Amino acid sequence: MQGQTFSARLSAWLKNKSPKTIAQLDETFAEKSFAVAFLLLMATAAIPIPTGGITHVFEVITLLLAAELIAGRRTIWLPKRWRSLRLGKTLQAKALPKLIKFIQWFERYSRPRMSNLLQHRLFLQVVGLVVFVFTLAAFLAVPFSGLDTLPALGVLLISLSLLLEDIFIFIGGIVVGATGIAISIGLGTAFLTMF
Description:
Blueprint: H1 6-15, H2 22-28, H3 33-46, H4 54-70, H5 80-83, H6 89-109, H7 115-118, H8 121-140, H9 149-164, H10 167-193
Helix pairs in contact: 1-6, 2-3, 3-4, 3-9, 4-8, 8-9, 8-10, 9-10
């Protein structure tokens, strides 16, 4: 399993018969569980598909996990009820296959760059702060406006940078997420000045 790409490991996890819960995700991807959790939880917000409101539930969990990373935790802690929360059928059937193709594209072009920095405890705390800010921006975005997509996509890229150990992907995630926040603020300001 160690020689497999991350996309192959994720595909295998999706195809096995066990329930797709956050607890099971943590057991399967223990060494990179925060990055994998951010990636899967924010996928619904980053891919514009109807989600039936589950996006906000996943964003709240992501905020809690980001706070844990800021506090310096190396393993995921969630209330028992949330650990048994299943990834929805829409996420498994529609979002995750698209997400796997997205990951495979990055796997073709990325290579480890500054991987020691990406694993440093202090850097991971900064990652937690950035993920918290981007996730909060996605959570506060006007519903059905699409303004949550870029901050969520920033979180996906940051998660991928940790999984693929590539600082260039991290920088891309910062740019995408910050652009999304700037657009949200710009549109919000323009809207308020109209009245």
